[in-house]
Amino acid sequence: MEPSVITQDHEKSIMDSSTPNSDVKSDDLTVECPTHTTEAALLRKVDFKVLPILIILFSMGFLDRNNLSNALTLGLPQDLKLKGNEVNVAITIFFVPFVIFELPSNLLMKQLKPHIWLSVIVVLFGTISITQGLVTNYNGLLAARFFLGFAESGIYPCCFYLVSMWYKREEAQTRFTLFYSSAVLTAAFGGLLASAIANMDGIRGYSGWRWIFILEGILTCILGVVGFFLVADFPEDVKWLKEDERVFLRERLRIEQGDPQSKKKLHFKDLLFFKDFKFFLGGMMYFGILIPAYGISSSSISSDIFTNLRFSTGLAYFTPTIIKTYGYGPISTQLHSVAPAAVTFVAAVLTAWASDRARHRFLFVVFWLCIGIAGVSVLLQVHHNFHTEYAAIFLVAMSTGSILPVVVCWYTMNLRGHFERSIGTAWVIGFGNIGAIIAAFSFVSSDAPFYHKGYSLAMGGYCLCAVSAGAYFLTIWKTNRSHDLARTHLGTGQDELTENEGLGTKRLIL
User: Would you say 464 and 288 are in contact if contact means Cβ atoms under 8 Å apart?
Assistant: First the structure.
């Protein structure tokens, strides 16, 4: 066999491709930034146009989903005569359609355009939220929660999918976390809004908890209509970019995403893209972390709590109820519930900023997994000590709140092309939310006062996330190594293949 001949230009390209961190440079853009602006200024313009309205709409989704926790402290169980584990069932039934309909929702958004689809589903779940304030029995509550989950199934994956199509991998984590954490923080402060609305108790014969659902639902519908005019579509479709700006943005994103204007039709084989083991691992990471995120409860703070309440589930739903049992008034109860969310917001944003600067995800996940495991260990061992357990809840909240957006961003931004990201975001969030269903029944009154089963499941969720993250890291590392070797020794490889398919060429982020 004759030795292959490598030209000087080819040799130079091989040397460049093998240089460490070559994947985070200018990406050999073939189009320069327009002279009337800079890349940083253009990115700020994108931030201003894309993120604020999505944060607002996503926040309303969190608010409408979690306002049940406030209604539970204001007489809903008594008015609807709930008993046993009926509250757990009402919470769980929300996630059933939430898991099933996320993939169809993402595919519909690609066809209908984001500003149309997102505004439709926001108005829809706002309307259903209003009906929650009108139910008169347990069956009515179940129906309302089921259809609320159906309507909200699109808001989470659609927003993450849309954001992922606007940014490069090393820019995305801070945006993902700001987007996710702002919504969670808004929902937490929603408890204070609920306390104010509760003062309407008795007006027109409605209890205070009914007014919470009605007024917040009306606000959601109004913002959904506003979203029709403000939500940004995909980069290739928006009207507020000048043509030279659009060409530049398309080129800088093409390196990772491929041709955004590709009109390739969806085929059945596209739905099976996650047959690659690393895509399955993304779902397992998210599944694992959602068990402690939704399942960790302060149930062991007092054995007397569940003698009266007879239920327990996620921190997101029952922290206000549990804190109230210590004699705090409505405002103080909500402030105690807000504190973990506020601290988590700061921790998550700092983590995201550092992760983007380091262009790395895995070690940040490992760090917060260790913090979360420490928090669960305290909750397993310490009982009847409110301050210690409250501190442990902070550890778990910071852990899950920091890991969740990192896992979603890490997984999503390593996908290529419109269809991979539309299917992938729906897959990871939909499959992961099965963990929320498990979490809803992790803590039951029969396990009082120590709830070893629930906390053990939460610990298992952390361990599953840790194993999946480690396997995903190794798989990505191996993929990048094979990619680099192919380019170095053959002068071609996955770059050429994926670019021909319109899928992008950039190495995956670790």
Answer: yes
Round to whole Å and give the CA distance between 390 and 35: 54
Q: In which residue are the tokens 């109860």 written?
A: 333
Q: What is the distance, to the nearest Å, from the Cα of residue 335 to the centroid of all Cα atoms in its chain?
A: 24
Residue 293 CA to its chain's centroid (Å): 12
Answer whether 181's CB lies under 8 Å from 405's CB: yes
**What does each C-alpha distance from 347 to 342, 354, 399 come to in angstroms?**
9, 11, 9
What distance in Å separates the CA atoms of residue 265 and residue 113, rounded to the nearest whole number?
A: 16
pTM: 0.80
- The 10s digit of each residue's pLDDT in 311-344 is 333 444 445 544 554 555 555 665 666 778 888 8
**Is residue 380 within 8 Å of residue 454, measured between CB atoms?**
no
Contact yes or no for 304/480 (Cβ under 8 A): no
Residue 300 DSSP symbol: G
Query: Percentages helix, strand, coil for the chain, rounded to the nearest 5?
Result: 75, 0, 25
pLDDT in tens, 35-55: 888 888 899 999 999 999 999
